[in-house]
Amino acid sequence: MFKIKLVFGIMFSLIITIASAQQENINKYLSIAAENNAGLKSIFNEYMAALEVAPQAKALPDPQLAFGYFISPVETREGPMQFKISASQFFPWFGTLKHKEHAANETAKSKYERFEESKAKLFNEVKGIYFNLYFNQKAIDITLENIDIIKTFQRLVTVKIESGNASIIDEYRIQMEINELENQLALLKDKKFALEAMFLNLLNSENMIEIVLPDNLWQTDFPLTRQAALDSIAMYNHQLLALDYQQASLAYKKKVAELSAKPNIKIGIDYTAVGKGDNNLSGKDAFLFPTIGITIPLYKNKYKARIQEAIHLEAAKSYEKQDKQNLMANLFEEGWKDYQDANRRIRLFEMQHDLALKSIKVLETDYTTGKESFEEVLRMERKVLKYHLEKEKAIADKQAAISYLNYLMGKSSNQRI
Description:
By secondary structure, the protein is α+β, with helices and mostly antiparallel strands. The protein has one domain (25-59, 92-262, 297-408): Outer membrane efflux proteins (OEP), CATH 1.20.1600. It is 71% helix and 10% strand. The protein contains nine helices and four strands; from the N terminus they run αααββααααββαα. It has helices at residues 2-36, 38-51, 53-57, 96-162, 168-203, 226-236, 238-259, 300-368, 374-408, and strands at residues 64-75, 80-91, 265-274, 287-294. It has a four-stranded antiparallel sheet with strand order 1-2-3-4, with no helix packed on it. A hairpin with a 4-residue loop joins strand 1 (64-75) and strand 2 (80-91). Helix 1 crosses helix 4. The chain is elongated, with a radius of gyration of 38 Å. It starts with a helix and ends in a 9-residue tail after the last helix. Residues 1-19 have low confidence and may be disordered.
C-alpha cells in the first residue's frame, strides 16, 4: 500500500513539474511583452507624467517682483524718489494646496490602475494567441497523422481492388478524402504564419524569438468558486479601482472648489530708494514697509458653479462605476460559461474519441472481410479526426477561459496563469 502511494506521489509531482516547466515558456513571453509592447509603454509614461502633477499642485504661486523707475523724480522732504522695488507672495486659503495635491495623487493612482488594466489585457491577448497557436499546431499534427492513416487504408483498398473484392469507387473516395485533408492542412499552415505574426507583434521584440509550444497543454482548473471570483472582480478589477481613484480625486477637487470661494492672502514688502536732496546731503531710503492684502471673492456664482461642476462629475463617476460593475458581471458570466462548457467538451470528446477509435478497428475488420462498405470506414475516420481536434480545441479553450477570468479579476502578473 505504501509503495502504491509512493508511486502515485512521484507521478503527481512529475506532472506538476512538467506543467510548471511548460508554463515557463509562456511566462517568458509575457515578460517580453511587458518590457517591449509599445501601447503599454505609452500608458506607463502617461502614469509617470501624472506623478509629476502633485509637486506642481502643492507648490505656492510664484512670488511677484516689480520694479518702478521715476522718470521725473518725486520730491519728498527726504529727497527725490528714484526707483521702487516691490516683492509679494500670494497664499491660497488654508488647506487648498493640500487638497490639490491629494487630487493629483488620486489621479495618478487611477492612471496606474489603467496601466495595470492594459498590462492584464495584453497578457490575456498574448495567452489567447498562444493557446490558438497550440491548437493550430495540434491540428496540423493530427491532420498529418490522419493523412498517413488514410494512405494506409489506400494501400489496403488497392489490394482489394486488384483481387476483385472492391470497386474502383473506393479508390476515388479515398483520394478525395486525402485531397480535402491536404487542403485543410495547407489552410492550417497559413493560419500558423498569421498567428505567429500576431503573437510576435504583441511582444514587439527587436530580436527574433522562437515560439516554443508544449507537446500537450497543461490542464489546470480555475481555483475559485463562482461567487469568490465575482467578489474578487469587485475588489481587484483594475477598471473599477481606477474609477474609485477618480471618484476620490473629484472629492478633493470639490473641496478645492469650496475653498476657492475663500479669500487668498497676499504678503509683500515695498522698498523705495530716495536720492540726495537739498535737505539731505547724503540721501537715504525713506520708505521700507510691509504690505498685506486679500482677494475678495465677490462673484459668488462663479464659485458656486465650480462646486456644482465637481458634484455633478462625482455623481457621474459613481454611475459610471455602477454601469462598469454590471458590465464586468456580464463579462464574467460569459467567461464562466465558456469555462464550464470547455470542461464538458473535454469529457465529451475524450469519450467520443475513444468510442470512435474502437469503432474504426471493428469497421476495418468488417471491411477486410467484406461485411462493411468503405464509405462507413471513411465516415468513422472523419469522426476520429473530428473528436480528436475537438478535444484539443476544448483544452485550449479552457485555458483561454481561465486566462480571461483572471484578467477580469485584475491578475496581470505573469506568475498567475
